[in-house]
Automatic annotation (TrEMBL), chain A:
Statement: the UniProt record of this protein carries the keyword Nucleotide-binding: no
InterPro entries the UniProt entry points to: ABC-2_transporter-like (IPR010390)
Lineage summary: Bacteria, Bacillati, Bacillota, Bacilli, Bacillales
Name of this protein: ABC-2 type transport system permease protein
Domain of life: Bacteria
Keyword Isomerase: no
Source organism of this protein record: Anoxybacteroides tepidamans
UniProtKB keywords: Membrane, Transmembrane, Transmembrane helix
Automatic annotation (TrEMBL), chain B:
Name of the protein in its database record: ABC-2 type transport system ATP-binding protein
Pfam families, per the entry: ABC_tran (PF00005)
Domain ABC transporter: 18-255
Record PANTHER family: ABC TRANSPORTER ATP-BINDING PROTEIN, ABC TRANSPORTER RELATED
Signal peptide: none
SMART domains xref list: AAA
Top-level taxon of the source organism: Bacteria
SUPFAM superfamilies: P-loop containing nucleoside triphosphate hydrolases
Keywords: ATP-binding, Nucleotide-binding, Transport
Keyword Transport: yes
CDD domains linked to this entry: ABC_NatA_like
Record GO terms (molecular function): ATP binding; ATP hydrolysis activity
Amino acid sequence: MVRKYIALLRMKYVEMLAYRLATIVWMTGAVVQPLITMIVWMNIRPSQSDAFVFYFMALIFVERMTSAWDVWELDREIRHGTFSTYILRPLHPIHWAIAENIVYKGLFLVVLVPFWAVLALFVPVLRLDVTGTQMLLFLPALVLGMMLRFLFSYTCGLLGFWITKVTAVYSMMEVVSLFLSGRIAPLSMLPPVLQQWSIFLPFRYMIGFPIDILTGAANRADIAFGFLVASVWVMLLIVALCLLWKAGLKKNQAVGG
Amino acid sequence: MIAVKHLHKSFRVHVRQARWIDAVRHLWRRQYRTVEAVKDISFTIETGEIVGFLGPNGAGKTTTMKMLAGLLYPTSGEITVGGFVPFEQKPEFKKMMSLVMGQKSQLIWDIPPMETFLVNKAIYDIDDRTFRRTLEELVELLELQPLLTKPTRSLSLGQRMRCELAAALLHRPAILFLDEPTIGLDVHTQEKVRRFIAEYNREYQTTILLTSHYMGDVTALCDRVMIINHGMLIYDGELSVLTETLAPYKRLEIHFPIVPSVPWDDYGEVVAMEDGKVTLRVPRDKVAEVSAHVLQHFHVHDLTIQDPPMEEVITRAFQEGLHGS
């Protein structure tokens, strides 16, 4: 398996280099929306400007590190029939997607971390004032976020075996997640009802949860409960993915050709 | 090697009419229709055989092939390929077969074919030495050297197909499914691909099932053909027998300085009448008589007697139907 991953990672890296421009645009483009949101909030509550700067910078980082595009790829590949070429080979297609995620997120990491470091020299708010424990909790929370978004996206993508253009359904979920994941505003600023919901839904754990750990907005009990809920969602999604995969293959029409 | 018993596959498809009112109605009430793509097909293929799978578009060739490769789930019936049930998706099964689709590429589009080969090397657990040797051989046979480092998207169709074959053969599959491997290729490249397939089969005793629209592929490669139409197997047997039973006619091409105006219909069925040339379809047992008569009574430049083209034979098979030999 290690050899297979090395080969896949290498290939995805070469492929990424072939898409240099797209990768750069894709990375910088995703920064615009949180920046605008940040400026809006800073205008509404100038007294909390610093907190917003830190929150949204962390958001950009976490959002990029957890971003998932697999549903778009699966939708296209199933619809065009090219997915067949993966099913035919003796390795589950999900490994191709995992390898791709590792390569792109590796790139995001090596771009974003030095960028943050340089920025922190000029913007004091960005200097990380976190304890070792916070950092130790942030990292697994980030990994859980990556897993959740990836699994959610891939599972939705598998619905492509039944529905044409499944991305439409996914886009709708993205809008919901925009609010409940903390992308529009920190969760603590949402109406209490939504806050209640967001604790049990998966979206918060995709983006907002790791940031709340970093900003200290979540207390010990919140964090413990958060890890529990996020882990349950990861397991549920894995089960859903396996079931959909089995049923989807039977439904597969292997179109074209 | 391959055994298929009473294989069926039906699809449920949306029925959609073209009128806009139907399109609106369609929003809340979808109508479905069941299409039987494959109806009760049975056959066996022995190790090392090359079998041609013929039929018009939509006859069920590709559907059958996809079931054999484990891509589609059969509605009913049994398939075993190399001792495996394809749909169980066992890695051991996938390692012993390959499906090459003329219209779908397994090569990664924006990077050179070599990258796909390297990925396949890892995925199929091919060791370094075997990989080097196999690749060397395929590169030579398929003349791939200059193509290996160009991005796949910049290759011509023929170049891509050759790389496609190499990618499919790196793990030395015992069974090869070829779905329209020569589609869209020019005559020269078609010829190259055919020669390669024939050589490969001889060398490695690979069992090959091939679908094609080009009769040339089939006549050059296959002794045995299966003809499928409307999802049913209507012929399974030797190619030569098919020609004899289905085409009890020969083609007579007669060249004249000036075509005499006689009722040619009396001699045979007129296929074409051009400037200085008449083409007749004459029953086999009357060929000698008719040609003798023509040569005796008219001033003839040239006269040739041919078997009807394969296309014509197959078309007749589809029209008239026929059952196994």
